[in-house]
Amino acid sequence: LQDYFDIIDTPMDFGTICQNLERGDKYMNSEDVYKDVQFIWDNCTKYNSKGDYIIELMKRVKKGFMKNWLAAGLYSDVQENGKYCSIGHNSFFCSISFSSFFFLDVL
């Protein structure tokens, strides 16, 4: 991955997001967290080639993450029933691994 930082302007991962949450100094609401999570998906797509297995894994993780995120009623720019979700709460699920979700308090 020697060229990763040449291609990706804003690196992001769930570990960094969770550290930011634990410190409590970066995110003011769920929209702020959502924006960083979007960097994870976007970076994966930008860095890897279409059809790469890692992109398929990312899509599966994203699907699970979004299912829990939306179920929690948190901010999203995803359309549901023709309406944009824009509800922000102070707690959410943070995906740390492919199979587990941990409840974290933002504020």
Provide a concise account of the structure shown.
The chain is of the alpha+beta class and 107 residues long. It has helices at 4-7, 14-23, 30-47, 53-71, and strands at residues 79-80, 83-84, 91-95, 101-105.
Structural account:
The chain has four helices and four strands, in the order H-H-H-H-E-E-E-E. It has helices spanning 4-7, 14-23, 30-47, 53-71; strands at residues 79-80, 83-84, 91-95, 101-105. The strands form two sheets. It has a two-stranded antiparallel ribbon with strand order 1-2. A two-stranded antiparallel sheet has the order 3-4. Strand 3 and strand 4 (101-105) form a beta hairpin.
Topology:
Layout: H1 4-7, H2 14-23, H3 30-47, H4 53-71, E1 79-80, E2 83-84, E3 91-95, E4 101-105
Antiparallel strand pairs: 1-2, 3-4
